[in-house]
């Protein structure tokens, strides 16, 4: 990741060469800012590299707007001016077309995909059909007949495009007036009319997304080491972040390893998602539906677990990096096995995981469990299923079990089972294959979860409007909360007092899927986090290890607010993790966050306060990197390449020669270019703009 411009905006600069020919629409708009233009970047694992890249000096090609799949022949064979930079409308961004372009990459300079403003009707998933196939519990050693999604193909729509390697850059463009300029440039200059060959000048595009890392993780980590001794210039970084967890009873977080009397019921959900393009990871159904449900359930349990605490502790865990071979859960299990976590595996009583729960048909939930460990009598899955059945009584939710021999869907719980047989259930909205038709795609968004608002509401009115989706997830959260309470040993007589709050669920859905910059989030975060809230949905791509993403922080602060209590202590003591100047013990049991709160009615000054909670972060870095085992078969080995610049522009080229040499043609250097220099490091002297 380009650490200097973590939050970059890619600008696409449109610039014409002055060649005595009118530039039509392009000349009217010399710069085009495409704010949501994003690349596909290179990722590496133990054996492969996937993703995309350009040459160091960018890839240049003559624009070609692909009109149909048959039209690919122009790009690959008949077109007279290769290489081409192919503009694809999203319905044509298919595996079939992309593999043809990949195969003909000598004539393909790059691809720009125009993202639609509304979701497609048919399902699309660039992910694999069998997510995390090699790192779950179902390997040849566990039960060969269940390995490799033999029984259930979870993501049948998966094209696997996200796991292909391309030798050219692929960018996503937002469909707006700016993309219209690109189309127009193509129409005016490059389109073959009546079978004639288009003449120069031609409209061309240049995309830069050169990647520093090559081959595989072992190779790039070795490079990192070599380079580090000379200069601290890294070529790749392990994917990762931090898990967020909290417990219903304070646990001494400084004392790692086994806790004599502790027995914990783990309630888990995953945080991250991905898509084909970098940092485009809306994850509404695949991640948000589950973790918002768990946050709401944790809140619903606050009173009951304080006033009538059940014998067992409930441990809420939110895992990061699960998309990439279970980074977060494998790390927590590893830490539990190595006395490096506040509790160890012997303390784990059972696991309840909330998976994809946002798209329930007929209000049904499916309780998935593992057919292998369940055969062992000591693994009491039945009790957990009964807890869920009891919890669902009287609610508008029916809980069902899928076929007895069906293995677990992809889930963090599989990493616990890999370590030892533990009773557990994964709650999903699907009986077998995913209901989610947009798994790990850019369309798994608020629109897909059916989050919509009456027209003409202001953002703050939308924030508090309780959507049907929020009502439905509230019911699921109530079931989860009640089931956890029973599973932890609580009395059924308390269940009626355990209810998730639709007002909170709707605000969280709004905050994560529509706009994180809203008054509800603002009141629950520290003042210095304000600048991280945006008017866009939160990004759920995991990012690189040892950086805490905005998502991790948000979940940390919300979980503290929803499960913790307000502490009447000074800002100074709060930020120093203590109750008062003399206190040295509390920090082992609690964490403290100073949040900015709200401004009272006739003031503009917020009144901050301290939140005391059991919320903690723990590393979500694959153990493979601690073990320096970069070809590990047990643990995730995913790394992300670094890059220097991601950018693109369009311009007219006067001849084949110019197009190939651009932008290094010396004879062009006298001409001046009017660039928006905002993101380009300096003026590129040989790019020339039109002055009218
Ligand atoms: C892009 O961002 C600029 C400045 O932030 C803004 O003025 C412009 O309207 C945005 N363009 C689009 C297409 O959103
Ligand atoms: C790849 O391209 C070659 C020619 O360059 C062609 O013969 C071959 O059939 C193509 N393969 C596929 C899978 O399209
Ligand atoms: C699935 O497992 C069954 C039972 O072990 C086996 O007969 C079958 O060949 C397997 N199918 C695949 C595609 O591996
Ligand atoms: C690395 O990723 C590639 C592409 O998804 C996959 O085929 C391969 O099995 C992965 N390697 C390992 C060791 O998981
Ligand atoms: C985009 O184009 C439409 C019509 O083509 C026009 O009404 C609208 O104002 C344009 N938007 C911007 C931001 O230029
Ligand atoms: C293309 O052909 C049609 C009919 O053959 C003709 O009317 C039209 O003018 C031609 N267009 C150009 C740009 O030559
Ligand atoms: C050091 O890093 C640079 C770029 O980051 C790379 O070009 C070079 O090959 C690296 N050196 C070694 C020895 O790998
Ligand atoms: C927590 O554990 C640490 C390390 O074992 C110990 O020093 C500390 O006193 C403990 N605190 C409490 C409140 O148990
Ligand atoms: C928790 O208890 C307090 C007072 O005891 C009450 O005001 C609040 O509504 C309760 N919250 C929930 C979620 O039941
Ligand atoms: C819960 O705690 C009570 C009182 O300590 C005890 O009597 C009971 O057996 C415990 N229940 C379980 C399931 O451990
Ligand atoms: C959560 O945040 C709200 C808004 O700032 C505040 O009113 C409430 O007291 C907070 N709860 C806790 C436990 O800090
Ligand atoms: C507004 O502020 C004034 C003076 O600070 C105070 O007297 C008044 O009660 C406040 N009104 C409200 C609604 O808080």
TrEMBL record:
<dbReference type="InterPro" id="IPR041084">
    <property type="entry name" value="Ncstrn_small"/>
</dbReference>
<dbReference type="GO" id="GO:0005886">
    <property type="term" value="C:plasma membrane"/>
</dbReference>
<dbReference type="InterPro" id="IPR008710">
    <property type="entry name" value="Nicastrin"/>
</dbReference>
<keyword id="KW-0812">Transmembrane</keyword>
<dbReference type="Pfam" id="PF05450">
    <property type="entry name" value="Nicastrin"/>
</dbReference>
<dbReference type="GO" id="GO:0007219">
    <property type="term" value="P:Notch signaling pathway"/>
</dbReference>
<keyword id="KW-0732">Signal</keyword>
<keyword id="KW-0914">Notch signaling pathway</keyword>
<keyword id="KW-1133">Transmembrane helix</keyword>
<keyword id="KW-0472">Membrane</keyword>
<keyword id="KW-0325">Glycoprotein</keyword>
<feature type="signal peptide">
    <location>
        <begin position="1"/>
        <end position="23"/>
    </location>
</feature>
<dbReference type="Pfam" id="PF18266">
    <property type="entry name" value="Ncstrn_small"/>
</dbReference>
<dbReference type="GO" id="GO:0007220">
    <property type="term" value="P:Notch receptor processing"/>
</dbReference>
<protein>
    <recommendedName>
        <fullName>Nicastrin</fullName>
    </recommendedName>
</protein>
<dbReference type="GO" id="GO:0016485">
    <property type="term" value="P:protein processing"/>
</dbReference>
<comment type="similarity">
    <text>Belongs to the nicastrin family.</text>
</comment>
<feature type="domain" description="Nicastrin small lobe">
    <location>
        <begin position="39"/>
        <end position="213"/>
    </location>
</feature>
């Amino acid at each position: 990741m380009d650490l200097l411009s973590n939050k970059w905006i890619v600008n696409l600069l449109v610039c014409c060469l002055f060649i005595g020919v009118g530039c039509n629409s392009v000349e009217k708009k010399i710069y085009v800012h495409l704010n949501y233009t994003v690349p596909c970047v290179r990722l590496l694992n133990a054996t492969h590299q996937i993703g995309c890249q350009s040459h160091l000096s960018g890839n240049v090609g003559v624009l070609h707007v692909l009109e149909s799949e048959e039209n690919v022949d122009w790009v690959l064979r008949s077109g007279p001016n290769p290489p081409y930079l192919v503009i694809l409308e999203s319905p044509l961004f298919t595996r079939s077309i992309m593999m043809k372009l990949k195969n003909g990459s000598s004539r393909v300079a790059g691809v720009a995909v125009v993202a639609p403003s509304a979701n497609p009707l048919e399902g699309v998933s660039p992910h694999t059909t069998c997510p995390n196939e090699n790192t779950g519990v179902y390997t040849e050693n566990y039960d060969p007949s269940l390995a490799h999604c033999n029984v259930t193909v979870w993501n049948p729509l998966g094209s696997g495009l996200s796991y292909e390697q391309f030798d050219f850059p692929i960018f996503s463009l937002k469909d707006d007036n700016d993309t219209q300029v690109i189309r127009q440039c193509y129409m005016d200059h490059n389109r073959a009319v009546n079978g004639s060959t288009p003449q120069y000048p031609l409209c061309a595009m240049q995309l830069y997304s050169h990647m520093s890392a090559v081959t595989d993780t072992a190779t790039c980590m070795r490079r990192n080491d070599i380079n580090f001794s000379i200069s601290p210039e890294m070529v790749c970084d392990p994917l990762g972040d931090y898990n967020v967890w909290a417990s219903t009873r304070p646990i001494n977080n400084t004392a790692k390893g086994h806790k004599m009397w502790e027995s914990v019921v783990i309630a888990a959900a995953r945080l991250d998602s991905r898509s084909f393009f970098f940092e485009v990871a809306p994850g509404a159904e695949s991640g948000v539906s589950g973790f918002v449900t768990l946050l709401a359930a944790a809140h619903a349990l606050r009173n009951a677990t304080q006033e009538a605490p059940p014998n067992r502790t409930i441990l809420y865990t939110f895992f990061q990096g699960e998309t990439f071979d279970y980074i977060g859960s494998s790390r927590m299990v590893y830490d539990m096995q190595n006395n490096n976590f506040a509790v160890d595996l012997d303390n784990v009583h059972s696991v309840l995981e909330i998976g994809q729960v946002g798209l329930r048909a007929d209000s049904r939930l499916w309780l998935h469990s593992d057919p292998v460990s369940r055969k062992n009598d000591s693994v009491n899955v039945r009790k957990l299923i009964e807890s869920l059945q009891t919890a669902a009584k009287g609610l508008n939710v029916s809980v069902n079990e899928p076929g007895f021999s069906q293995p677990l869907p992809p889930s963090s719980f599989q990493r616990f089972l890999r370590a030892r047989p533990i009773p557990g259930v994964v709650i999903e909205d699907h009986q077998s294959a995913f209901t989610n038709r947009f798994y790990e795609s850019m369309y798994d968004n608020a629109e897909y979860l059916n989050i919509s608002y009456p027209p003409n509401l202001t953002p703050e009115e939308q924030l508090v409007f309780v959507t049907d989706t929020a009502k439905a997830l509230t019911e699921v959260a109530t079931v989860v909360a009640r089931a956890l309470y029973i599973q932890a040993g609580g009395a059924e007589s308390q269940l009626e007092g355990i209810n998730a709050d639709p007002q909170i669920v709707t605000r969280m859905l709004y905050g994560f899927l529509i706009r994180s910059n809203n008054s509800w989030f603002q009141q629950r975060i520290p003042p210095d986090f304000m600048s991280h809230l945006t008017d866009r949905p939160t990004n759920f791509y995991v990012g690189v290890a040892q950086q805490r993403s905005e998502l991790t922080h948000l979940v940390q602060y919300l979980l503290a607010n929803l499960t913790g209590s307000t502490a009447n202590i000074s800002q100074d003591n709060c930020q120093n993790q203590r109750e008062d100047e003399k206190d040295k013990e509390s920090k082992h049991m609690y964490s403290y966050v100073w949040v900015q709160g709200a401004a009272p009615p006739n003031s503009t000054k917020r009144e901050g306060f301290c939140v005391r909670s059991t919320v903690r972060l723990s590393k979500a870095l694959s153990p493979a990197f601690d073990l320096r085992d970069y070809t590990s078969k047990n643990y995730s080995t995913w790394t992300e390449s670094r890059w220097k610049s991601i950018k693109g522009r369009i311009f007219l080229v006067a001849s084949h020669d110019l197009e190939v040499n651009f932008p290094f043609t010396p004879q062009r250097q006298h001409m001046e270019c009017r660039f928006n220099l905002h993101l380009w490091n300096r003026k590129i002297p040989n790019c020339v703009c039109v002055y009218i």
